[in-house]
Every structure is written in C-alpha cells, then in structure tokens.
Amino acid sequence: MRHYRLSSVALILCASLVLPLVADQRPYFVFGGKQFYVGMTMSDAVRLLSLCCELSPPIEANTEKNPLTARGGHFILKKDGTETSILGGIFFADQKVTRLTKPMADDVDFSNEDLVAFTRSVKRVLQNDAGVFSTARISIQHERASNAESDVILITFPDGRGIELHVGILDKPNQLTNKRDFVTADEILGSAQ
Question: Residue 90, Cβ neighbours under 10 Å: how many?
Fold first, then answer.
C-alpha cells in the first residue's frame, strides 16, 4: 500500500512539474539568434529584429493601417549590407505578430523548372476533382532496403488517394548517375480511411 501511495505522489509531482512546461511550449522561428512566435507583441518583435535584420517595407511605412497593404506583411532581410537575402516574412495585426514565414531550405533554386513542375504536380494531387482541397493525414517513417535507406513521407486522404515520397540514400552510388541521394514521388490509391 505504501508503494502505491509513493508511486501516486511521484506521478502527481512529475505531472505538476512537466505539464506546465509542455503547455507553454509554442512553435517559434529563429532570426538572428532570437525566437519569434505568433502572438508576441509587435514592439518586441520589431525591437529584436532591429538587432540583426531590417524590414521591407520598413515598420514606419505603417502597412498594417493601409487597407491595400494590411495583409502584405514585411520581408525580413539580412542587415549586414552584403547581398540582399530574404530570411522570412512577418505579419502584424492589432499590435501582435499574426504570421511568420521562412524558406523551407537554403541554397535551393526555387525557380528551377523541375522543382516548379514537381510542386505543381503535388498541388494537382492534393486537389480533388471538384477543385477542393481535403483534409490529409501525414506520417513519416524510416525504411531500410537491401541497398538503401529512406524516410517515407506519406500523405493520405479520406477517399484513399495520396502521395508517397521517399527521400533516401543508396549504399553505393547509382551506376548511371554516380549519385547516392534520391527522391521518389508517387501518387497512390489505396483503401479509404
């Protein structure tokens, strides 16, 4: 009985210490070594960004108050004076940060024809015949094959349609391309969920 009480007390103590920490963790982006999150005050965000970056248009332009530009936000640019590099975007409303953006990858040519074609094909698969986007289930798992290993990103829809992406590395370079890294992208049709 004493062991049961001690275990119960330990469980309650652990929950009371851990749950507040988990509940307070919100997603954030890092710019210039500082954390930015949706809901932080506009003044805090602008102050922290001024240490490392500049905004375009500048905050003084008051784009949030102009009905034509209120949803446009601001680009976050490097402040070092070298080439202009867009680090992300920040959007404000009611003196709060409402949205943050940043590129998913560095050093990618986002005008690359193959990347544009791939992204358009993903959009086509995501959109159903009626032109409506539906809710999707996304899962990621690691697979090992006889000659490679890959991470499988599976996006499935309630009607059984989906996308399966394999991002992996071969044990030995491919004889035709002499490359080890690979991606496969397939549209799938399976049992409805």
Answer: 26
Query: Over 70: is that where the pLDDT of 59 sits?
Result: yes
Is 56 in contact with 74 (CB distance < 8 Å)?
yes
DSSP strand E in the chain: where? 29-31, 34-36, 53-56, 74-78, 86-93, 96-101, 137-144, 148-156, 161-170, 181-189
Query: Looking at the structure, do residues 43 and 67 belong to the same domain, yes or no?
Result: yes
The CA–CA distances, whole Å, from 67 to 37, 71, 139, 141 equal: 24, 8, 40, 45
The predicted-structure confidence for 148-178, as pLDDT tens digits, reads as follows: 999 999 998 887 888 899 999 999 998 989 9
Q: Of 101, 128, 149, which residue constitutes the final position of a domain?
A: 101
In the three-class reduction of DSSP (H, G, I as helix; E, B as strand; rest coil), residue 9 is classed as helix
Range of the domain at 71: 29-101
Taking alpha carbons only, the member of 100, 119, 101 closest to residue 111 is 119
Structural domains counted in the chain: 2
- C-alpha–C-alpha distance, residues 38 and 136, integer Å: 24
Compute and round to an integer the Cα radius of gyration of the chain: 23
**What pTM, to 2 d.p., does this model score?**
0.64
32/116 Cα distance (integer angstroms):
30
